[in-house]
Amino acid sequence: MNKDTIKIGLLGFGTVGAGVYQILTQNGNDIKRKLGVKIEVKRIVVRNLNKPRALAADRELFTDTIDHVLLDPEIDIVVETMGGIEEAHRAIASALEHDKFVVTANKDLMAQHGVELLKIAKEQEKNIFYEASAGGGIPLIRPLKNCLAANRIVKIMGIINGTTNYILTKMSCENMEYETALAEAQAKGFAEANPASDLEGRDAAYKLNIMASLAFSSRIKMDDIHVEGITEVKLRDIRYAQELGYAIKLLAIGEEKQEGLSLRVHPTLIPQAHPLAAVKNEFNAVFLEGDAVGEVMLYGRGAGALPTGSAVCGDIMEAARVIKNEVKNGIIESTFTEKDIIPLAEQFSRFYLRLKAQDEPGVFAQLAAAFGNAKVSLDRIIQKRSVEKTAEIVLVTHDVKEGNFMQALSSLRSMPTIRSINSVLRVVE
Amino acid sequence: MNKDTIKIGLLGFGTVGAGVYQILTQNGNDIKRKLGVKIEVKRIVVRNLNKPRALAADRELFTDTIDHVLLDPEIDIVVETMGGIEEAHRAIASALEHDKFVVTANKDLMAQHGVELLKIAKEQEKNIFYEASAGGGIPLIRPLKNCLAANRIVKIMGIINGTTNYILTKMSCENMEYETALAEAQAKGFAEANPASDLEGRDAAYKLNIMASLAFSSRIKMDDIHVEGITEVKLRDIRYAQELGYAIKLLAIGEEKQEGLSLRVHPTLIPQAHPLAAVKNEFNAVFLEGDAVGEVMLYGRGAGALPTGSAVCGDIMEAARVIKNEVKNGIIESTFTEKDIIPLAEQFSRFYLRLKAQDEPGVFAQLAAAFGNAKVSLDRIIQKRSVEKTAEIVLVTHDVKEGNFMQALSSLRSMPTIRSINSVLRVVE
Q1: What share of chain A is helix, strand, coil (3-state, %, to 5)?
Q2: Which positions 184-243 of B are in contact with A (Cβ < 8 Å)?
Q3: Chain B interface includes A23 (CB < 8 A)
Q4: What is the dihedral of CA A86, A21, A314, A302, to 10 degrees?
Q5: CA distance A278 to chain B (A)
Q6: Is residue A296 within 8 Å of A290, Cβ to Cβ?
Q7: From CA B267, how far away is CA B426, in angstroms rounded?
Q8: What was the pLDDT predicted at B328?
Q9: Which residues on chain A are in Cβ contact (under 8 Å) with B299?
């Protein structure tokens, strides 16, 4: 194709959309030199034309009519940065049907409708690029699809939500309570006004879905992932964890075992010496274990205008290269096989438990019996001097079946000498 | 192409070659499912047919005649794992001319002749894949070429030699002297019998050349890189560095500044809190800074049969996909521009200096004057109680021009009260 310019239409001009525009503008010459073709933003679709924008872009570019992009035959690439599900879904499907390549950073959408959209892309001999959807600026999708493709991936374990990692870092390093840390994260722009999807682990679960689908070549449904957020993590638990040599991080974990896949997002105690324990503040990192490569870690910024924009622009450049060079059949297709999901009750884990018990003779024997009856063996116990006849006890179990642990927990709950079960967290060694 | 098998010829069956064979065998079914085509090793070229091999492969596969691979029209991909320069160079050029794709892990060759070989590949409408050449199993080449392509890369800084990192880790964490640590590295197989290229920094310089050429889109010559190894690093300096809050690592550093590129490999003091300081033993990591993405770190095993084999097999799969799908023009070409190299004397750095001086009045004033005259300002000074009228002094300068520091150093050398200059190291904050 002898084009000297490839034109894109930008859907949305929020944080990521504006970041993409800024990078294409500021690095335009370098990008043109690398590609041999200029990338031009032809239209930007926004909901409200009159909204004031932090970043200046030519007013002429803006439109509130999405068909100005979807139906424009001059536009080769549609870049979806509007977020949300339904509207974005329709827009991407329509863009593909109008013979356009698509680049998106939309994790919710790719996690829930990725398989179906990629199928439309294939039928249209187009493609959807979504590097930014799993790790923001961190290279993840291509390393999984290409560089590590010859490996059987055994495990993915990542800190893939910046908001929660920022909050846990503040709690752990500056002794802040959860609420204070959340307020600071919001003030600094690391947490949204409505941070529920981040705090409750859903954002991390979407990203895990995208990564695990590629890593394990399996079509994963959101229901396959057990999700717990950080809303119940107490400063007190972080302190006890530190005493035991652990840090608490919100981890997204995917493992392939003989019996199937284990997929979960939950706050986790990890050894302080683990590379993920050193990932602080808004930084993200994904730890991969392949049967050939061993351990690999990819670290960087998982969110933000320019980091996410960096991945989106890398995708735009790839799409532009495909168009310019008329690459045929260059798409790396993922083959999916259905794999079993191991039910949560059948999964193995170590558990951390904090409870309050009456400080009287025989209580510990009752506790021990409850665990013993459920075949849960204990690894470590901390009991501090009791206050007002109440002892706070912290226990760490050996690796046990989740169902067995829950059975022990339910016997404890029915014991009159146990005042309260305050925290239950999982431990990864 | 309706092939159901793509055949490869393996040149060399040492550590990496055997690793490649093992991965293709053990993960063969998965690889076939992902690609839709089987990868078969058709021939393995070795120098000595009778050498006993740790890994069993069908005797029929082996040949000592390289033309059995290069001239076999059934072989689509030549995988070069023999190492060395001249013979590998001829083999790769000939493979391309015989219409084969090439995969190589040969850093020495790619650093010295990569540009020329990639040119032949382009003329032949073939390609050379070399992911394993820079970071072993760590994804580096594709992230640089694709994911981060829209960034202006400002800095690359990496621990890209496992042997030296293993030795420095042992010195630092287990108080071993250099010679003892080297002997242990050799015993454990982390250092070769002749480890000169690793210890003297040349291995890291080759890898820096490959990465920096891509990151800065510039054709870099080996002479452009200032190279110092770890042979002069003393346990004593590691201890002083720790006291000052630093770790000592052999870093490969590439930076693009207004005046040009700065490229160097040398032992470096970095703050203990820097993510690279936590990279221990034989692990490698590369820290990248892009104007959009900010800081990214890629961490993993930079050497070894299976980690390097992982990257080589990823490349084989990419080549196989190109062949199977008859991808045309799918090659990502690197465009190179000539960039200036900043002469070492013009580069800025902080310096660490350890020296012995006569312990008598006025010596410190002389020292201070020597630095002052050369416009070198001092940041930190350690002087311990002197022994036999000799004081050991450790200094860390502010950021100064290398030429100025060297001028100060040369005045010190001519001062009769300075007994010895024991160590000069650079510091990166």
Answers
A1: 40, 25, 35
A2: 217
A3: yes
A4: -70
A5: 8
A6: yes
A7: 7
A8: 67
A9: 275, 296-299
Question: Is 90 exceeded by the pLDDT of residue A339?
Answer: yes
Minimum-distance CB partner of B27 among A34, A152, A337: A152
**Quick one: pLDDT band at residue B362, thresholds 50, 70, 90?**
confident
Say if B330 is an interface residue toward chain A (CB within 8 Å). yes
Contact status of B60 with chain A (Cβ, < 8 Å): no
Q: Is B154 on the interface with A (CB under 8 A)?
A: no
What helix, strand, coil percent values describe chain B, rounded to 5? 40, 25, 35
What tokens were used for B137?
Answer: 């199993």
Sign for the pseudo-dihedral over CA of B74, B79, B81, B83: positive
What letter represents residue B387's amino acid? V
Angle at A419 between CA A416 and CA A421, to 5 degrees: 115
Q: What is the pLDDT of residues A116-173, one digit of tens each?
A: 999 999 899 899 999 999 999 999 999 999 899 999 999 999 999 999 999 999 999 9
Contacts of A421 by beta carbon, 8 Å cutoff, 6+ apart: A353, A354, A355, A409, A412, A413
Identify the pLDDT of residue B331.
Answer: 61
Domains belonging to chain A, first-starting first, are: 5-137+305-324 (3.40.50.720), 141-300 (3.30.360.10), 345-427 (3.30.70.260)
- The closest CB to that of B318, out of A146, A151, A306, belongs to A146
CB crowding A173-199: b at 16 or more within 10 Å, else e: eeebebeebbebbbeeebbeeebebbb
B169/chain A closest Cα distance in angstroms? 15
| Mutation site for A-interface testing, chosen from B310, B323, B331 by largest number of A Cβ within 10 Å | B310
Contact B27 A217 (CB under 8 A): no
Q: How far apart are CA B202 and CA B265, in angstroms?
A: 8
